[in-house]
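User: These chains co-purify. Model them together.
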Amino acid sequence: MYYLVWSRFSRWQITAMYVAFLTAIALSILQLQGCTQLGISAPANVEQGIAYIYPANALVREEAAKLLKIGSIKKQEAVVVLDLTDKVRSAADIARDYVRAGDQTAAQRNLTLARNVLKEARTFLGMPDDKELK
Amino acid sequence: MNPILIAQGLQILDAALSVAGNALVKAQLVGGFIQKAQAEGRTTFTADEWAQIQAVDDAGRDKLVNAIKNAVS
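Assistant: Joint model of the two components:
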């Protein structure tokens, strides 16, 4: 049975799958090791949580640009992602304004809104969950 | 040996590592600022640090806007 499955693939196909498998394991280990060793610190307050939204939002924008260039999404869909990520940016900016005004509750509310909209955009593009957004 | 298959495999690998690496570099910027703030006994970011954090998103937006401009409907 084992032989029948693997005999369908060429040596190079098996090698490619093996490399992809090792890469997936390596990336999983990096995640399990904890982010601190990689220079990523867990946010200690609302302001730091807000700060992580900006690079996460940029990543979604860049992913949408890449997918549009290779034809995986349509122009109109990219416009929707642009709109969603602009909303994320607005919510993050507003959250930051509330932090500066000393209203942590309103800041947290807008941070949650930014995270939720960003998750929607990531899901739409088929991106995996971002640990920093949880 | 199938060169096309190898090239495809390498492209997939490159794309996966590129996405993971890009995400890591971006998050490291904020992580670095958090560690710096902790070392300096601060709980907030400086105006310059915020400017750099926001510039990351601005650059991402520019890329998407340009891609949309250059795309055909």
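Chain B touches chain A through 46 residues (CB under 8 Å).
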